[in-house]
Amino acid sequence: MRCLWYDCNARGCIPFCNISSPMKADSWISAWQFCPIFNHQADAFHPQKGRRTVLAKFDKHRYPSVHRGIVCAALQALRLEAHPAAQRFSEQDAAILIEEAAAPDHIGDRQQGRGLHYYNSVKPDGSVLPLHPATGGYCNGKGAPAPSPLTVLDAEYRTALALRRAGKDDASMRSLSRAVHMLADICCPPHSSSLTYFSFYGAAHKRYESRAADIFWDSPPEQLDESAASMKWAEQAVGKIPYQTYVNLLCGSVPVSGKEWQTGTLPKICNTLAQSGASHLEAVLGSDETVREQSIRARLTVSISNCAALLAAFDRDLTEDNPAILREQHPYWLKSFNTAFVVSRSPFYLHFAEDGTVAFVTQEGKALGISRFGRVLLTLPNADLHTQFRIGREPLLTLYPDGDQDKLLAHIRGQLHCIRRVSNLQGNLFLSQVSFALVNQPPDSARFLF
What angle is formed at CA 57 by the lines to CA 51 and CA 60, rounded to 5 degrees? Predict the structure, then answer.
């Protein structure tokens, strides 16, 4: 028999059920009995409607996204603790942070899908997964080190700081909200335990998050007061915000010798959160609702307290005028990682747009861009040239032409190219080709492309 719930071979996963022979239409119950996730709710599984009927019971969309509540509660917790960061965020800032919180989950969003929201420290059977040697973190839902919640969190946090420094306050808050979203996902057990949405474990993931929405909002949808519901959770986070953990966030992973990398601050934080979340695996997959509710309450509090700490770190980095924050009026040379290759003899000045992308423009007005045929040029801007890039961190500076994370600026054999991301090419060679640095002075032995 073959399990109707999931075509194990098609997705390449390791299922709970051990069913391999062809299955008759009237024997679906026998196959389903091998599936421990659904044995306790047989009335929900229909032989004709199959998986869709089961998933209909787990509808977290009756409520606003819990991500909105987490951001709101984090801001409220800062105010309850009278932390200086609470004064940083105006009412408009708070409104944008909350409104943008769920955007990465929306269909068509640049950060939706592709396994990007998973930071897997264990497999579904509990076996430990390795850290990537360069990023110092875990891989995403597709087994690739980037883009992942860690790399997106790092890039969006840095972008938010740069945008705030450039006076683009609304754009800054949108980037910061996306960073908070990724941090909250890392705190969520299904997102750190390889329980991807479109896998055999998808229903367990949905069940956990649907129950989390019920517990967080704790009110009929038609009577919901988001601020009041979030305040109850903010009160639980008071005294638990790990401010001292979120220091030196701009100290990223760097190469030290050969193939050895020194792990940065954010990977260490994210790894600890993912590992602690993965310890709740049984609460996600098991049938004990009491254990599941205890897990959800604990992880929601962890998520809110850590997101509040990230917001406080944002305020501290701006207050201390961290020199690692990118600046618009500062001259930079764009240098290839681990080589003396420099893109331009003239320095670049960064020009941030309201959508969070950045243009690299020389004093003469020439911009780095991609032609419609994929050539990388340094020329005066024109209608046929894509000059906007989005900043990534994988773990060093990575540039996404036209803001598309599936495209990368690459240095190959002394030339710049716009290439498609190839997930299987994750070795040191590929890493060095797509990694760059913005330096204050070009090296003495620099070789210039333009």
Answer: 115
